[in-house]
Design goal:
This protein is an alpha+beta fold. 44% of the residues lie in helices and 17% in strands. It is rod-shaped.
Length: 106
């Protein structure tokens, strides 16, 4: 949640010249007690990916469109052939069940 809103943190200069990152009050109090004098407060920009993920969890992710095509946008010929063969078989079965003679070529 904090990453989606943007982070802020403080860097404190210690007496030996090094900088220490402080994020809690206890860390700030300890650094001041150790003699730290100079500090900088930094703001980190909100992470847009975290924000969009948070919104998708809160409001439900919208349905994403999926397209299934063959090479270079061509229709999936294999699937179309299988469907057409299945339709022909089903039509022949229905005709046989009705007791009608059919032409073997069709």
């Amino acid at each position: 949640m904090a990453n989606a809103e943007g982070l802020s943190y403080m860097r404190i200069r210690m007496p030996d010249g090094s900088f220490q990152r402080a994020q809690t009050e206890a860390q700030i109090d300890a650094a001041i007690a150790a003699g730290a004098t100079l500090y900088h407060i930094y703001m980190q920009a909100p992470n847009t990916a975290s924000c969009s993920l948070l919104f998708s969890y809160l409001f439900g992710q919208p349905v994403q469109r999926q397209e299934h095509t063959g090479k270079e946008g061509e229709p999936l010929e294999v699937l179309l052939k299988i469907l057409e063969e299945g339709r022909r078989r089903n039509a022949r079965r229905e005709v046989r069940r009705a007791g009608v003679e059919i032409d073997p070529a069709g």
